[in-house]
Amino acid sequence: MRSSLFRQTHPPHGGAGPRPSLTGAFKLSLRFLVLVLGSMAAVGNVGRAESSVTETMFREEVAPILARHCIGCHDASTAEAGLDLSHRDAALRGGHDGVVIVEGQADHSALWQVIDADLMPPDRPPLTDTEKAVIRRWINNGASWTIDFVDPAIYSGTPVRPQQWVRRLTVDEYVHTVADVFGVDVQAQAARLLPADPRADGFRNTAYSLNVDLKNVQAYARLAEQIVDSIPIERFAKQFHRGTKFTDKDMRGLIDAMGRHVYRGPLNESEIASLRGITTTVAAAGGTYEEAVRYVLLAMLQSPRFLYRIEQQVIDGPRGKPGVAPERSVAVSDFEMASRLSYAVWGGPPDKRLFDLASKKRLHEREVVEAEVRRMLDDPRARRQSLLFASQWLDLDRLANLSPDQKRFPKWQAALADDMRRETLAFFEEVVWNRRRPMVALLNEPVTFVTPRLADHYDLAVDLPADDDQALNLVSLVDVPQRGGLLTQGSLLTIGGDDASMVTRGLFVLNDLLYSRVGDPPPGLDTTPIPPSPGRSHRDIALDRVRNDACGGCHAKFEPLAFGLERYDGLGTYRLTDEYGNENRQDGAIQFPGDAMPTPFDDSAQMMDLLARSDRVSKGITRKLIQFVMGRPLTMNDVSDVDQIHQAASAEGGTYMATMIAIATSDLMARGRADLQSSDSNGSQP
Known about the structure:
By secondary structure, the protein is mainly alpha-helical.
């Protein structure tokens, strides 16, 4: 039957009449088609909006609840009652007793029933009423499961209101900035006067921990005077403006140009006027041009614009729309981008080329940014910054306080601690820069650097020059299977303390390499380490915890990660037996997060190879570098960006350089965002 649009053009009862007007019919049809398509588009937009809300709900509300309360007992490896709630397909398939999630019917879903009755999680606080409401609403709305793997390391943080941390210059960044801007070395003075930057979330540049107290203020004032007294003031000022009169034109010109250099970006009118007031006061008091410049520089050096990396960001996301995730802020300015790049790659301020490109608004062109980062990576400052990353990631500063029990380790020499620190940094530089290897090669590259003293400590039979006991020497470990890679170096092995704690070593591998986490022990649990004894080795004690019903759920995930390191004592010496004559083994298995079954290995060399081949480890190291560059913990909101950065870096070999380029050209670098920080003390980081 024809459309009514056509039937209306015929006379009634089949009588004679004018022929159908195809043109008119076409116009009417077109008009109707536009209306229909418009309606369909509107319906489609509503559908997409609802879908977006559903996806957001699972990622931002449901997944964190599952990660915090359920996955400890119901992941792929534990799967109590045969139920894995960490993977979408497995969760929807159910457990030994059948399906636990009935889409659209919470009251008929076993998952909801045990949650509603406060039966799950056992021996832990039940879900709050708000969390219960989220689960019930999610199931009744169709139980849309929008991510393949609920990774507890990512989703176990509790989201709170958006925050954007302002980054104070760390002590290292302050020293490098002063050196590059003024040509003055204040490293010794800064180390003496400024409080040390606290370590938070694994790094010393974590923005939320970089506070300023009275001691900082007093130190900045003293350092400012020392810096200004160390430079030829008039010659310094003439780099930016030739005029030396107290006229408004000369003073404003000087302040504007010099301020741009010191503040790492243009000054606004208020800032110029404030600094202009200083020169006016000096002139009124009969002071000289040099005195005026001196006071201006003193003010600049103590200004938040110098001491902080301030960005003028305006969040442009939607407001007041429940279920709609806030979008990112507008792109950072070109001058802000210049600082982001320079402090990421160099740990210091932008150079003239970056400033010139920022002035031309070229630093939001991907090709330009990539070319600049490649240029910057060829600068020695890039190596220096990468070594700072390695030192903080691996917590090498703790070696300065290493003080083992002299009765248990009578051959220990304090100088060995510094040898171990230097060994790891030289190894990192060799693998990352000289050999340009993927960063995961840090786990199994068969070389190291030793002094004669350290070689003796490691029982390495190598010929070394005898004339310098402080020099590090590159040695091959191809024929030394028990050595090779970070985890076989004393700097990392000492993390377990004198007793070579499998708990501490295993947690390092879990948290800092595999990027995973386990929950805190139950309140009131006695966590005092149990030392080995005759007939009872470290492994025996660890296995007791792994097999214990109360402890095994968590300890099974990390203590076996240290089994391959059992032959290394608390100071990294290789021993076939412990001090009580118990056999030290080196076989074990790695439980990679998300895998149902552990992957076995026969010795430490195989363990290192498994870690070095793991994309999970590669991505974990990438995450650490991203966190160091961004100066904040990563959250569930960063998952997509981290994935893209890791994929881009892996496609180019997974090297440090490729990863830095991928970070620099990512949205994380180019745009500010009000990230959801975690209410946990660790910001949802392990």
